[in-house]
Amino acid sequence: xxxxxxxxxxxSTGDRGGAFERRVQAxxxxxMCLGLPxxxxxxxxSIQKLQFQGRVLGHNTDDLIITSVCARTGxxxxxxxxxxxxxxxxxxxxxxxxxxxxxxxxxPSFNKDLDKIQIVFDSSSLGHMKGAQQIVAFARSTLTHxxxxxxxxxxxxxxxxxxxxxxxxESAVKIYDLEAFSDxxxxxxxxxxxxxxxxxxxxxxxxxxxQKQLISQQLPSLDKSMVWAKLVVVCVELNGVAxxxxxxxxxxxxxxxxxxxGIARLLLRAMGTSTENGFLxxxxxxxxxxxxxxxxxxxxxxxxxxxxxxxxxxxxxxxxKLSLAISEASKNQALTEQDGVSSTIHATNKGASTIxxxxxxxxxxxxxxxFPDHEHNANTNIRFRIQxxxxxxxxxxxxxxxxxxxxxETTAYAEILVSTxxxxxxxxxxxxxxxxxxxxxxxxxxxxxxxxxxQKDYFARSKHFSSSFFASNYFREKLNAYEKVLDKxxxxxxxxxRLGMLGKKEERFHNDLGLISxxxxxxxxxxxxxxIKVINLILNLAEKNGIHLRFSDAAFDKLLTEELxxxxxxxxxxxxxxxxxxxxxxxxIVQGENWEICMVARNFFIGFQKFQLPKPSVRL
Length: 620
Fold this sequence. Notes:
- By secondary structure, the chain is α+β, with helices and mostly antiparallel strands.
- The chain folds into four domains: about 10-200, no CATH class; about 255-335; about 345-530, no CATH class; about 545-610, no CATH class.
- The chain has helices spanning about 10-15, 20-35, 90-105, 125-140, 145-155, 160-175, 185-190, 205-220, 225-240, 260-270, 275-285, 290-295, 310-330, 360-370, 475-490, 520-545, 560-575, and strands at about 45-50, 65-70, 75-85, 115-120, 195-200, 245, 345, 380-395, 410-420, 430-435, 445-450, 460, 495-500, 515, 520, 585, 590, 595-600, 605-610.
- It has a seven-stranded antiparallel β-sheet. A six-stranded mixed β-sheet has the order 5-4-3-2-1-6, with helices on both faces. Strands 16, 17, 18 and 19 form a four-stranded antiparallel β-sheet that branches.
- Strand 10 (about 430-435) and strand 11 (about 445-450) form a beta hairpin.
- The termini are far apart.
């Protein structure tokens, strides 16, 4: 049996994992301060306290311990978190994280119905960690260990990356506590673990900016960077003393933010309240009077006293609280254009009427499919968020109305703002903002808005390329479709999007289209097209010749033409017969003044590499 993690001094554990760990912790601290949900916390539970460096309390997965409570039942749920900036299933860090998680899982205090274990890593490791994430998904979709293992090892269903991740996890738990191991227990353990990739590696990463945007929306009067920095500093302090924090002792760490956070938390709670008892509880809230004073100072109507027997009072209260919250949030939406999006030109809309574009009604139909049980009140404003909206992109000839047969899907984040009149079933005005992107080799990012004049639509190349290591047939079809759609756009067609409908098996996407009106310049479109053609060519050559070609910056060099790529791969295949050579390096395929690109083959890499050539010595 492997030894448990030993208790270390708080000073040595305080900075373990560095800045990435602190930013992950700060994001959970912000969720607690605002009363927001976060990954791992069950629905209907709210964060009660955070424990930093929890080994001293018996936790092995100990970087952050989140305790949440269900207001209805009083039952607690615990999320144990370990942060590893970089992670692969073959690494010692992976073995340690999984092994220690297993020790927590087999402890009698672990509630298998509610507790979770999270191993969080920077999103740059997503490609390496997809196998581990996939076997967790397989485990959660099976009832028994035998069926799960069959799925993992099925030749045509799974892949080698999944199998290696499974073996690495099984090996780790057996090393740390073999006596507690059984097939069924291992199956239950994997269902309780989560591998999360988060973009929090720097202060400018997407995940960090998302946290700052959230601060801007909920605390519009404060500087978002200042608030975020204070939260990170609090995490540094609490790491150093293995401390804990809850709403009851916030004033000991961030006294200057307690009132603003409390008022924001009350507004968010009010937005989700629809019962008379809920309104009465809001009036008893410790920040209710401070909220009233704040409303008076900004010249907004004060929330009225609610008569629980008066539906009119309840409606007016609901209207005012929602209107205020949305109007404040709308001033600071922070729905700005994504950093790095290339400059755009505005497309003309000649003949746009020949395609059926989104209307106020069609946005309402999409909203109703996602929130079928929501009842709209009169004279209210409310914002709906869809975290993972499936969307279908293709191209349209706006002169003729012809739509391309080639289509590819991406996921997106969407917000729909709804304003109602006196008759909410008849008077509903919708505003939509949706932002989507591809993943791995699908280098596309896009944005579309409806009835929001300040938001720019765009269709551009994502600046973050990563290799998926294994490209499924389904993903290959998406890449090929993306190439064909770009060809259409280069020919004068326009990118369009259809948005997903929830619960519609036969109609996954709404039939109305969103026309993306801003597209990159011609030279940037050509570069997007050139890159996807290189990607598809390399994947096709890899499949045809039975070798695993990897992507690199050198593969996308503009001097490395498709013809040169084909010739270089064929030369390598010829040399590999009957056996591949060790440390293969071809002759120069393209050359510059002091560099050359060659095809190389070494351990775990076959592909193109750029070499700097030594400068010739100068004789005096």
